[in-house]
Amino acid sequence: MEVLKSKTLKISEEKDLLNIRGLIREYAGEIGLPEIYKVKLLTATSEIARNVLKYAVSGRMTIRILSDIYKGIEVICEDNGKGIADVDSAMKKGFSTSGSLGLGLPGAKSLVHVFHIDSKLSVGTRVRLIVWRK
Amino acid sequence: MEKIPVLKIGNLLLISIQTDIYDSQGLQLQDDIANLLQRHSFRGVILDISSLSIVDSFMGKIINNIASISLVMGAETVVSGMQPAVAITLVELGLEMPNVKTTLSLEKAIQFFNEKFNRETDQDGSSQE
Predict the structure, then answer these.
(1) Which of A17, A126, B69, B96 has its CA at 20 to 30 Å from residue A108's CA atom?
(2) Looking at the domain assignment, is residue B1 inside a domain?
């Protein structure tokens, strides 16, 4: 697997979310990602980025164009927040510690082709998403 | 931050969301609609999202809140013009909108309310006879 392009953006305020969406749109355009996959990836990324702002306060997001059998876009989101105590519960629909709908993580997972989450208490959380241009 | 304009047309409130909005703008919109509904007796709220390219769970929650608040205050909410990719994404995200009626276009939303109001006027007329 080859990385054709890569850029890392910070997430520390809501405005950054719009920059991230902008970069994903740009990369999606470059590889000709169909509209539906683009909207799904943008929505999944938005859910993940929102979690960073809400729970970890700040983090960074790396967006890459990948080339394998297909081309694709990878989003890696990392923060040094308090981490998720129970990842299995956090991945269940309707589970929330903040009064939100509890759709963020499980929802994001169902929107993309590849979804990985690693979280360590008081170290941080890393989420990786890929959407392939199949 | 710029407010999302809420237009008053007869007994309808019309809101057109043209671009991705900040969370704070969404929350502000929710408050603005609640305040307007309290001061005047609007019967319907039309939320046109035809220019909106993504609706995430937060935006979905705002739309649901607006619909629930409106319902409690005597108005029905119609979301018009949802793009196909947004609709598919919402379904896969698992976001349900139980109190929200949807129409394919703004025109159809206005038509829906006109027909509804006409029906109600007819019913009022016949009950007085």
Answers:
(1) B69
(2) no
Task: Give the closest of A14, A106, A110 to B23, CB-based.
Answer: A14
**CA-based nearest residue in chain A for residue B97:** A101
3-state secondary structure of B51: coil
Smallest Cα distance from A7 to chain B, Å: 22
Q: What is the pTM of this model?
A: 0.89
pLDDT tens digits, residue range B22-76? 888 999 999 999 999 999 989 999 999 999 999 998 899 999 999 999 999 999 9
For the purposes of burial, counting CB atoms within 10 Å of the CB of B112, is it exposed (0-12), middle (13-18) or buried (19 or more)?
middle
Beta strands per DSSP E along B10-109: 12-16, 44-48, 76-80, 101-103
In a domain? residue B100: yes
